[in-house]
Amino acid sequence: MSKVLVISGSPSPTSKTEMVGDLVAERLAEYEWNAAHLRVRTLPAVPLLNADCSDPAIAEAVGQVARADGIVLATPTYKASYSGLLKVFLDLLPQFGFTRKVVLPLATGGSTAHVLVLDYALRPVVQSLGARHVVQSFFLLDKHLDRSGGRLSVLPESTEMLDGVIEQFRKALIAAP
């Protein structure tokens, strides 16, 4: 059984982005993938900012990345870029921390003007970490995400496309040697 790690880089505990990460992990679990969700905001701040991999929580988070076959990166869009919190975490990974991994980049944001954050900001970092395969990224508009009753639902405008990228990610994991 393949292991997938969803890494969400939102600093907010009520983040729609984090809820998207939960949704993707649940969908992958339906296919019997072992899917876990790492919320970077829950890591201890000082060791994270100091890239102190001797800290037990940081070491465990880096270990989760190392043990994963697939990585889903979920980030809110801030000032036309992915979150600084996600960047801090990615920076503490080993130089080729995504070697032999399939990666699915996801972003949320308020405007389609920021959709290029995935291909022009996040994808080069993922590639520099040595990802074996980066599947088609996906940008979810905030207005297509409804957080009613503590549960996230994706409006029909984005549901089919999100399902498609999850399926593409799943097929890439199956094809991985």
Automatic annotation (TrEMBL):
Gene3D superfamilies: 3.40.50.360. GO terms for molecular function: FMN reductase (NADPH) activity. Residues 3-143 form the NADPH-dependent FMN reductase-like domain. Keywords: Flavoprotein, FMN, Oxidoreductase. The keyword Oxidoreductase applies. InterPro entries: Flavoprotein-like_sf, FMN_Rdtase-like_dom, NAD(P)H-dep_FMN_reductase, NADPH-dep_FMN_reduc_SsuE. Its EC number is 1.5.1.38. This is NADPH-dependent FMN reductase. The gene is ssuE.
